[in-house]
Amino acid sequence: MMKRAFMLLGSLLLILVGCSQTEEAAKQSKSTGLAKDEYRNEAFKDLFPLHYESYMKNKKEEDTKYGGSVKRSKFEHDKEPYLPILFNGYGFATEYNEDRGHVYATEDVRNIKRITDKSVGSCLTCKSTAVPKLIEEMGDNYWGANFNQVIWPKAEAMGHSPIGCSDCHDPQTMDLRITRPSFIEAMKTRGVDVTKATKNEMRSYVCAQCHVEYYFEPSKSKVTFPWAKGFKPEEMYAYYEEIGKQQGFEKDWIHNVSGTPMLKAQHPEFETWIEGPHGKAGVSCADCHMPYERVDGKKKITSHYWTSPLKTIEQSCLTCHADKSKEWIKTRVEEIQTTHMEMLHKAEEVSVFAHYYVNKMITAKVDESKIKAAQEHIRKGQWYWDIVAAENSTGFHNPQGTMATLSKSIDESNQAILIATEELMKKGIDVDKLKKEIEERMEAVYNEADPFKKKDHAITDSFPGQTPPPPAKK
Ligand code: HEC
Ligand code: HEC
Ligand code: HEC
Ligand code: HEC
């Protein structure tokens, strides 16, 4: 397919330039004529009008039952209404939205309330085509440089594009390529040299530059993927407990209800997929999310409209599942997702209760070591639901694996509640009354209409905030 496109392009260039079939021309026949560090999407438009047009479809905003691309808050009633409690004390309790099309990435990172005057360059890494050039120019100073004052103005002055052609393609040969060093380095820790990747592996690796769990390694604020022990939620947790802590990375934030040092998970599509049935069978991200599409009535190209495959079941799924109908596929996926959401909501509720029980342990002044023990279970319990909740397929990429992870989450949060209950009883605290008070907080957060104010209802006089005061100014 790609070869054919290049032969066409090659002959077109020959006609345009009018040069003869010299050795030089033959050498260049696989070149677009673009600069090797071209990063503006518009530069590719005239050479690849059909791909450009397909890419521009990412502007469409259209939802499916659980996924899709309308800009919506995750706090809405049919999504995850208790997140403002679960992320209390952290930016994710202020604003957290569903993902949408690649073309919106720069606009969305610019406007999100989580970006503050302290945010670093690393936040732009998965949003803009200027990033590889910024890293080339600034070296390791890119990661920790100030987002608002240094990095954003630089990228804007360069005329960058949101996630675009040069992020996945060599602009001269159009071969697939990796542009984000964090992925290359993390795969090395798995013993994989990505320069030796097969064509099929590249159809997932280009996505794995961004659709992964990561943290900012503390010495340089560098985007780092916690994979040295493996891709499973347990293995990434073990990484944070050992390697993360050795580096001085202990937490993303202190929870404002339970005072627990917490980890925040981010969109681990690659890790979830690789442990699931399709990943294990070598079915790539592009197989489902970039099916062939017919354009111009006849030509077939690889679709560059990255969205829910449920919008293109015939091209995305029936190519392999030829014995199934479109309806069967849609129903099967939605069944997986509905079961998944029920379990996810259950895990979130138990985690909410655990946070408040520990808040009560703190105000009732129970033994410090018991509080620490309960907090340890809270940290783990929330990690196990968040690594699933932050994943964007609502369980589809690994139905069995995510269920097992959620069940671990519930188990951990319940252990925190168990420790707390025992200690609170010793102090003569009425646990039934406590449960009622927690339900009142959940209701207040749920009923607040302004998403930005929801988090404020998590805290009251009977559940005082546990965020430590900022360090005193010198
Ligand atoms: C076997 C097909 C298949 C493969 C392979 C696959 N996905 Fe998906 N993906 C889906 C389905 C189905 C959904 C759920 C869509 C929905 O809920 O509407 C989904 C959802 C998503 C979403 C959320 C989309 C939305 O509408 O919000 C993202 C992002 C995503 N996948 C990325 C990836 C990445 C990255 C890979 C490779 C690491 C991958 N997927 C591999 C089928 C697949
Ligand atoms: C997120 C990664 C990604 C981005 C961004 C991207 N592509 Fe692609 N592109 C792919 C993948 C994957 C393929 C399939 C390659 C294969 O299987 O050999 C592909 C294939 C192509 C092909 C080969 C012909 C075909 O239809 O298979 C062309 C030409 C192309 N892309 C042009 C573009 C242009 C132009 C842009 C920017 C407007 C762009 N791509 C942006 C991942 C990307
Ligand atoms: C350079 C980073 C980057 C790369 C590479 C990348 N993505 Fe994304 N992707 C994002 C970001 C960031 C968003 C969310 C954008 C927003 O909400 O503003 C996103 C959103 C999505 C969505 C959600 C769209 C919707 O309709 O809700 C899908 C699906 C998706 N990506 C699939 C893929 C696939 C498949 C690949 C590989 C072929 C890929 N992405 C490569 C960063 C990337
Ligand atoms: C490139 C081929 C390919 C494509 C494309 C593909 N699948 Fe699959 N699918 C497979 C294979 C292989 C298996 C694993 C069969 C096994 O493990 O026995 C599988 C398994 C499944 C299963 C059973 C999973 C389980 O938990 O056991 C479902 C459901 C499914 N696919 C749905 C889809 C949907 C929905 C799409 C489109 C979004 C899709 N598939 C696209 C090849 C594909």
Number of helices: 21
Bound molecules: heme C
Task: Tell me the distance between the termini.
Answer: 64 Å
User: What proportion strand?
Assistant: under 5%
Give the arrangement of secondary structure elements.
Layout: H1 2-17, H2 23-28, H3 42-45, H4 49-56, H5 83-86, H6 105-111, H7 131-138, H8 141-144, H9 147-157, H10 165-168, H11 181-189, H12 199-208, E1 215-217, E2 222-224, H13 233-246, E3 253-254, E4 261-262, H14 269-274, H15 277-280, H16 285-289, E5 292-295, E6 299-302, H17 313-316, H18 326-363, H19 368-389, H20 399-426, H21 431-447
Antiparallel strand pairs: 1-2, 3-4, 5-6
Helix pairs in contact: 18-19, 18-20, 19-20
One heme C binds next to α6, α10, α12 and α16.
Keywords summarizing the entry:
heme, nitrite reductase (cytochrome; ammonia-forming), Cyt_c552, binds heme C, mainly alpha, heme binding, 474 residues, calcium, two-stranded antiparallel sheet
